[in-house]
Design a protein that fits this description.
Number of helices of chain B: 14
CATH architecture of chain B: Orthogonal Bundle
CATH class of chain B: Mainly Alpha
Number of strands of chain A: 18
CATH topology of the largest domain in chain A: Rossmann fold
Number of domains of chain B: 1
Order of helices and strands of chain B: HHHHHHHHHHHHHH
CATH topology of chain B: MetI-like fold
Mean pLDDT of chain A: 88
Largest sheet of chain B: none
Strand content of chain A: 35-45%
Oligomer: heterodimer
Radius of gyration of chain B: 23 Å
Shape of chain A: globular
Largest interface: A-B, 28 and 23 residues
Shape of chain B: globular
Helix content of chain A: 25-40%
Chain lengths: ~350, ~270
Amino acid sequence: MLRIENLSKKLGSFELTDINLNIEKDEYFIVLGPTGTGKTVLLELIAGMYQPDKGSIWFGDTKISDLYPEQRSIGFVYQDYALFPHLTVKENIFFGIKCRGIDVNEGNKRFKEIVDFLNIEYLLDRFPSTLSGGEQQRTAIARALVTSPRILLLDEPLSALDPRTKQIFQEELRRIHDNLKTTTLHITHDFSEAMALGSQVGVLHNGEIMQVGKPMEVFRHPNSHFVADFVGAENIIEGNARGKTIEISNSINIETIIDKTGPSTLTIRPEDIILSREKLFSSAQNNIPGKIINMIHQGPLYRVTVDAGVALTALVTMQAVEEMGLQKDVPVWVTFKSAAVHVL
Amino acid sequence: MEKSEVRGQNILFTAVISISIAFLTGFIILAISMVLLKGLPNIIPSILSREIQFAIKLSFATSIISTLLCIAVAVPVSYGMSRLEFFGKRFVSTVLDIPIALPPIVSGVALLLLFGTTDFGHALAARGIQFIFTPLGIILAQFFVNVPYMIKVLGSTMNDIDPRMEFVARTLGCSRLQAFFKITLPLARSGLMAGIVITWARALGEFGAALMLAGATRLKTETLPVSLFLNMSCGDLKLALAAASILIIISVLSLFLFEIMGGKQYELSRSSLY
C-alpha cells in the first residue's frame, strides 16, 4: 500500500539513506530507532513537509512524493500533538472536514462517530492549552482520523505521557486500530511499544533500515549487534491474566494496573526492579523472594539476574552490591511497582 | 575587603541604579508636563478652531490609510522573510530595514527626488497621482518611514509561530493560502494588533519625510505635527501647544495599548479569557 523506494534525505544533522519500506493495507507498522536518528524526518517526508533528495514514495500506483501535502490524504499526529491553539477542540476536529470540503451531513456524521469513539464529548468547547497530555492526544488523533486518511502517521505518540497514562493510551491505540483498521505508521524509540502494538517493525539506525519483521521475530532473531542491543528488552514473561493480576505459575502472581483476561506477555525494565536482602515494606505491590543466579559487571552498574520462579534481571549500583553483599546464590527479595509492569 | 567596605560598595551600587531610574523618569514626566500644563487649558477652544479641526481630520485620515497600506504590504513581506529561504535574504532584510536607520527627512528627500524629478514620477503625476505637496504625499511618506516597523513586529510574531501548525493544516487538506488565513494569520493576531498600534501612532506623528514630500501648507497639508511646527514658527503658542498635547495624549494611549497587546502571548491571553 505505502511503498518507500530508495528514499534519501539530508537535513541538518539528520540523514536518511536509501530507505526502502513496504507497508501493507491495515497494517500497524512501527519504525523503531534511537532518539535523533531522523525518525520524524521520515514521517515528514511521507507527509510532504520536505522533498526527498532521492527516491520516491508511493500509495499503490500513485507517486505521492510529487504531490502537495494537502493532496496526499495523510493523518499526522506529532509528538506534541500540534493542536491549533486558537481553535476549540471541536473546531480543531472540524478543521479537516471543512478544508476537504466534506458534505455537511457526512461531516457531522463522521465528527459524531469519532468523538463518541474516543470519548471526547466533554472536551469539545475547550481550548488545547487547557487539556492534559492524554486529552490533547485524543483530540489530535480525532482531528487526523475524521478526514479518513489513507494512512495515519504517529510521531512518538506515547513518549510525552507518564507511565500510567502511557499504558492506557497504548491500549487506546490498539483499540483504535482494531476498530477502524486505518493503516498506521508509528515511530518510537521504545521496543516495548513495538512488541505491544506492531504487526511489523522496522529498526532504523544511522539513517538506514537495519531489519524489518514481526516484532517477536526481530526480538528472537536480531540480524545485527545493534538490533540485538537495541531491542534487548529483558524480563519478558508469559502468564495468564485475571483482572489486574497475572498468574505466572502456581506460586507467582504479578500485580499490574491493566485489567485484562487471558494469556498475556509482560515486560519489566531492569532499572525498575529493586533488590533487597529483607522484604521491603513499601507501596510497591510486587515482592517476590528469589536467589541470585548471575551477576554481570556493566559500566558503573551490575546486571543481576535472580531466579524468583522466573528469571528477573535488575540493574544495581556497585555501591548497593557492596552494601548488601550481593553475590551468586545469595537470597534476595525482588520488588517492583505494579505500574512498572508493562503488559503487551 | 573589609566588611564595611563591601557594604559601602553595595549601597553605592544600588544608589547609582536607583538615582538613574528616578532621574530619567522624572526628566521625562517633567518635560511632557510642561507641554500639557500650557496646552491642556487651551485644548477645548483649540479643537473648536478650524485649523486644528482640519489638522486632526487630515492626521487621522492619512495615518489610517498609510497604516492599512503598511498592513497590506507587511503581512506578505514579513511572512516571506520568516518562512522562505532564498539567495540574498540577508541583503534583502538589510534593505528592508534602511528606512528605520535613515533620518525621516532624508527619506523625504529620496521620495521627493523619485516622484518629483524622474519620468516615473512625471508619468504618475500626468495620470493624476500627484505626491508632491499633496495629502497623498503625506500618506506615502508615512508608509515609507513606518512599514519597516510593521514588518519587524509582525516578523518576530511570525517567527514565533511553529511552521508545523501550517503543515498539519495542509495534511488536513488546506492549500498554503488557506493554511495562512486559517492558522498563521489568526495566530499572529496579537503581533498584528501591536504592529497596527505602533505604525498608526508613528504615522500620526510623522513630520520630517512628510514635510519634504508634501510641504507644510496651512489648511492643505497641515497635519497635527505640521500645525505644531507652523504655529510655533509664527508664535501662536496656544494652537501649537494644543496640537502638541493632542499628540502626547494619543501617543501615550497607543504606547499603553501596545504594551498590553505586544506583551502577552496569544495562548495566555486566550486561556485566561477562558
